Write a sequence for this structure.
């Protein structure tokens, strides 16, 4: 509400609130994993919870390093939205597990979702960048403006997050070929499409073909596209491989 109203009052417990939520997320995933005897990624409910956990984890690592304290005000709603959808939607359905709990399978799926967390934070940083740039262009500086990091710091964070996410996503894709299971054609093509999109963004950034504003906007588009692949990151009989 404060962000929408253009009035922001920094709260020191924001970071600690996200950290506390991260502790509870970790506890839930640990209990669920022990009950399943494997990484808890057997249905979309667990995938969304794991994604929310990844977003919180990346924020806790990146926020303090880049002084992005306000990012918590953008990150927390995304985490709540992901977890809220997981709890409300009828997606916590147990499926017969077809894939054995092999190390490559679990490494592939978990690393891919951690990459999603980095892409999500790049998306959030992109939103922050566009919000601040708009206020500068319109000369309407609300109180939130004075709590945003400089545009150069935000863009540096976006670039680092993109590289980390891209590296992890690449690692996840490559590890998928070592699982010993066939990769569905449609999921593989979609995953390669997302990989190529982020590769193009990073290449264009490196060659300075795109300005910071377009890179920030593409981070939002890229994460929206990546979200469409969440349905494939499960260990179920119906979805017998991950992107």
């Amino acid at each position: 509400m404060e962000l929408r109203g253009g009035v922001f009052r920094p709260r020191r417990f924001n970071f600690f609130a996200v950290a506390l939520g991260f502790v509870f997320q970790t506890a839930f995933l640990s209990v669920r994993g022990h009950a399943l005897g494997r990484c808890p990624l057997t249905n979309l409910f667990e995938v969304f919870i794991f994604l929310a956990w990844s977003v919180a984890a990346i924020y806790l690592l990146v926020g303090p390093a880049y002084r992005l304290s306000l990012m918590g005000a953008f990150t927390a709603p995304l985490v709540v939205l992901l977890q809220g959808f997981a709890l409300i939607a009828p997606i916590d359905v147990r499926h017969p597990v077809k894939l054995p709990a092999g190390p490559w399978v679990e490494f592939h799926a978990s690393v891919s979702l951690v990459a999603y967390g980095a892409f999500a934070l790049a998306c959030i940083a992109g939103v922050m960048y566009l919000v601040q740039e708009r206020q500068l262009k319109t000369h309407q500086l609300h109180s939130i403006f004075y709590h945003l990091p400089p545009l150069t710091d935000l863009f540096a964070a976006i670039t680092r997050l993109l590289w980390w996410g891209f590296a992890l996503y690449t690692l996840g894709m490559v590890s998928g070929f070592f699982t010993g299971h066939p990769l569905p054609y449609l999921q593989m093509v979609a995953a390669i499409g997302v990989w190529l999109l982020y590769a193009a963004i990073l290449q264009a950034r490196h060659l300075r073909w795109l300005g910071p504003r377009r890179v920030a906007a593409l981070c939002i588009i890229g994460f929206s596209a990546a979200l469409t692949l969440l349905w494939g990151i499960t260990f179920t009989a119906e979805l017998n491989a991950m992107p």
The chain is about 70% helix and 0% strand. The longest helix spans residues 103-138. The CA atoms of residues 116 and 236 lie 20 Å apart.
